Structures
1.
Amino acid sequence: MVNESAQGAAGVMCPGCGGSSVRTVEQARAERKAGEKADWRSGGKPERGSLADRLAVSPGATDSFDSVMHFLEGMVFTGLGVGLAYTGVQQDKPLYTIGGVLLAVLLFVGTIVVIRGEARERVVVPRGELLAERLWRAGYYCSGCESVFCPDGSQWQGTLTPEQFKKLMWTEAGYADRLAHDDKAKEATVPAEALSRTGGPHRHV
Ligand SMILES: [Zn+2]
């Protein structure tokens, strides 16, 4: 029997498998993070399906620099539409003119929508992160059966899969709609009995 990770989690046993190879979610995530290319806090996102991704506290927000780049890219493509329209006027080709104008308008509007969404994200995500982090800090991860649990049951009861845990955190934080379409957590359902205790987070999962 190898007790590989008793440090920092002395006396805590997994209610799922009874194992003691448990760490706080914070530790579990940090340990795996070392081998990854980018730190999720600095704009990079952990690889899809990695433990760090499965336990991610938030989607992270697009930073201002990226938004400026997206705006410039949008304007370059809008410029191409304008150029096409201009060519249409010069060469008396109405189809070019109409197509170019439509393209320019669509790209311009599309760019503004994206930029506004990113700006909203920079407000919504940090606010929700505070709520998600409360769950995150209360969580323990068992590497024996890959489950997440809250030792004192104050936030939820029993064990959750990493996907259910992520769904719970992101729902609590108000950005569950930001789960990527290929993220398994998107389809996860948090069992009602896990949330039956009062005093924990709001129940609307
Ligand atoms: Zn376990």
2.
Amino acid sequence: MSTLLIRRSMLAGLLCFLSPAAPVLAEEYVVTIDQMEFGDVPAELKVGDVIIWRNNDMFRHTATDRDGSFDVDLPPKAEARLVLESAGSIEFYCRLHSGMVGTLTVSP
Ligand SMILES: [Cu+2]
């Protein structure tokens, strides 16, 4: 009985020690622009994750938040990184081609 209690408290102590130090791992996702369209966006995004916008077209594009929190310029065949800094449903578009639209769903 006492041995079990000691083991449990040691385990709890260990977990308390480890949890705050455990790194929060950000994921990187690629969203490819091809033939004037944004490709599929990842379904499970979190604050801190990174979107790598990759423009495969011969045209310049942008990935621009409708609320103005980001505006990524994407020359032909270029790519750029965007760190997601806020949670929510983020509608984005290309400033140069208004038909190019998408939505990022970011959880806290
Ligand atoms: Cu465009």
